[in-house]
Fold L-serine ammonia-lyase.
Amino acid sequence: MPLHIQTPLLLSASLSTPDQQIWLKLEALQPPGSFKLRGMGHACQTYQQRGARRFVSSSGGNAGIAAAYCGRLLAVPVTVVVPQTTTARAKELIAQQGAELIVHGASWQEANALAQSRATGDAALLHPFDDPLLWQGHASMIDEVAASGAPRPDAVLLSVGGGGLLSGVIEGLRRNDWADVPVLAVETAGADSLAQAMAAGRRIELPAITSIATSLGARQVCEQAFALTQSHEVQSVVVSDFEAVSACLRFIDDQRLLVEPACGAALAAVYGRHAALRPYRNVLVIVCGGVTASLAQLQQWFKALGPQ
Ligand SMILES: *Cc1c(COP(=O)(O)O)cnc(C)c1O
């Protein structure tokens, strides 16, 4: 039994136009609030079968929350090491799932180093985006779309952080005979490690993350994600933080769902009628979710960022 739930696939009346059908895969409805549960659940179950008796994560975001959730369901103790920059809200959500929370270091790099040093013996280290088991788990969202009877998508729209979601979605497309379906990969400016890598023709590392979409804040995408841009049709789209936050606020009214700016980035391409979307009749949007932003926080960002 997988740990994730099967999520609804909705044809959105408010986001579709006469020429374009917008299909929403509502990963925001996974119990820990994001698609991360799919990959994390599959990785945790596999590591447990291979003998792991403890899990260690270094994510202060949705991956850490999903890891804590998986540990509780599997009755495996979880330690989540997060940097000092982690929000009170994220820490609370990790602790709520009964995981041991350790706050360590000024950045993710330091928290991750401590997590690695603790992942010895019968403990498995759970990476937030760079693990083939995660990609296999994420691919299940495409299996559900393929089995749903909905039309074959003409393009898939999703957000990119470290590239785990991108890698999983392409794996899902390939295993459902949809290898020719293009992917539109959206990032926010300041977290655009994939866009810059594609422009440079090699995996680059951003000097810093300057976007508020912290769940997209991987300074470098994983090797697999970059390699897939060479073997699959992937088009990169970059939106501003303001566009991402505005999309989140509109989505609350349109779909009655609150998501993070990380997810708002993909939604912003729809609301902004981005040119990259224009050729496609049926667009599958991965509503990846995220629980680390509150309504008050979204409104505060909206005011602070202003139209740009
Ligand atoms: C993790 C995450 C992403 C980015 O996923 P990657 O696999 O790192 O590319 C996007 N949105 C949300 C809400 C996330 O939690």
